[in-house]
Specification:
This protein is an alpha+beta fold and 471 residues long. The chain contains 10 helices and 19 strands.
């Protein structure tokens, strides 16, 4: 009788040990199965989950615009006073909803495509209509001193500016500011010039690319990484490593993302590659994601971050590369004095912010982030935020600019391009990926903990019974 009981206790302990060991064995086995499944579905090949998400965005992408309306126009025009701003917005557009075009398989495990540009106004998500009129910078007039230095040419341009009654500021509709209008000064020039201007002109109906990216079929760690942009590995805008096209387009990254990684991605909007660093874990619709943010160091002055030296091309505003937070991208904007920054000059030097009034930077509203599912590398939520500015310079030759006291960066608008995974896609993702991962993890823990408890309980009972028998 005692033997049977002791044997049963030993058998129970052995079963518990086997269960605990099996739970431990499931960890590498489960990881192997997960890796195999992800490598099959994460490559950009027709028929995979990744391909469908890559070809057409699985979530609705919106681009919200906040335009900086000048509230003291007469002082700015007549006295060269510091501009005071009030942001107006959002004016919201649906973008990135068309499938990629001219998709062709390339060599060495690549796929090539063009990205169509389209923006559809969403009145229900906007504060007003596209016909709202705002007071903003005169884009054509302000650009003249940066584009031309010849005294005779400036005198001729000044005569046409005066005849058109153009000032440093102008009243324009939202539609005109964003997508373009016929400028009265440029329209008076008696020889052929582009008289149509706008912050994003031309955009609608155009394409960006071609992009060539790795599919991941030959090397899973290269999935979605850009092999070339416009058939080149460099941009011809910067020097050294700053000119490289690095990383992905931000929509996805190679699978198995780690928190200590630096995720690099390229944005044609800012004419450069940039990067994100891990910030925190987020839970979106039941899915655990890693949030990566663009850090302050990405826009820091070269005196603080030496790697940024090759982004410093302007000596007038940058003061020998000691100013942070603004990037001169005139090299990729036909020499127009366009400067990019984070909204409200977030992370910019005090001197940049002090040249204007009415801006209030804060990280919560103005930083750029990507929320990435770490196993697959898919970006399931993001907010890409940037601000478009123009350099305003004093000029003795151009009438509207004679009263400008010094060169400064003038904000025009900022945008937030964002998306979050839809409910249907989230449900599919939970059932096919995150749900299975969670179930496997729960099973592993249950077997290990349950098996250990059973093992210890039966083994303890065995020794207790044995000690009683010996007495």
């Amino acid at each position: 009788m005692g033997c049977n009981r002791n044997c049963g206790l030993l058998a129970g302990a052995i079963i518990g040990a086997v269960l605990a060991i099996f739970g431990g064995v499931l960890i590498p086995l489960g990881d192997h199965l997960i890796n195999k499944a992800v490598k099959k579905e994460a490559v950009i090949v027709n028929g995979t989950t990744a391909f469908q998400n890559w070809l057409v965005p699985g979530s609705t992408v919106y681009r919200e615009f906040w335009i900086f309306h000048v509230v003291n126009p007469s002082e700015v025009i007549e006295e060269g006073a510091q501009p005071k701003f009030e942001q107006r917005g959002p004016y919201t557009y649906r973008v990135r909803y068309l499938p990629k075009e001219n998709v062709t398989e390339g060599e060495n495990g690549t796929i090539t495509y063009m990205l169509p540009n389209i923006a559809h106004f969403e009145p229900d998500l906007s504060v007003g209509t596209e016909n709202d009129t705002l007071t903003v910078l005169n884009l054509a007039v302000v650009a003249v001193p940066s584009l031309y230095t010849n005294t005779f040419v400036l005198s001729m341009l000044n005569s046409w500016i005066k005849k058109s009654n153009s000032a440093i500021l102008q009243n324009r509709t939202v539609n005109e500011i964003l997508w373009g209008y016929t400028d009265p000064f440029l329209d008076r020039i008696p020889f052929p010039v582009k008289s149509f201007v706008g912050v994003f002109y031309p955009y609608n109906g155009t394409t960006d690319g071609p992009y060539s990216v790795y599919t991941g079929t030959e090397n899973i760690t290269k999935t979605a990484i850009i092999e070339s942009y416009k058939n080149k590995r460099t941009l011809s805008y910067w020097e050294g490593h700053c000119d490289m096209v690095n990383g992905t387009d931000g929509a996805s990254f190679p699978p198995f993302v780690k928190k200590d990684q630096v995720l690099r991605f390229f944005s044609s909007d800012i004419c450069r590659s940039i990067y994100g660093v891990f910030h925190s874990e987020q839970v979106v619709k039941g899915i655990t994601l890693y949030r990566f943010v663009v850090p302050r160091e990405a826009f820091a002055a070269p005196t603080e971050v030496p790697d940024n030296y090759c982004f410093c091309t302007d000596r007038e505003i940058s003061k020998n590369c000691t100013i942070a937070g603004v990037l001169d991208i005139s090299a990729c904007k036909e020499k127009k004095p366009v400067y990019i920054s984070l909204p409200h000059f977030l992370h910019a030097s005090e001197s940049v912010l002090n040249d204007v009034e009415g801006l209030s930077p804060n990280e919560l509203e103005h930083e750029t982030y990507l929320d990435i599912e770490p196993v697959t590398g898919f970006t399931l939520r993001f907010a890409k935020r940037l601000q478009v500015n123009l350099l305003v310079k004093p000029s003795d030759r151009i009438e509207p600019l004679k009263k400008v006291k010094k060169s400064y960066v003038f904000p025009i608008l900022w945008l937030n391009e964002s998306a979050v995974i839809g409910d249907e896609k989230a449900a599919m993702f939970r059932s096919k990926i995150s749900g299975r991962l969670q179930m496997l993890s729960t099973l592993q823990m249950a077997l290990m903990i349950g098996g250990s408890v059973i093992f210890l309980a039966f083994l303890g009972s065995f020794f207790i019974c044995r000690s009683k028998k010996l007495k």
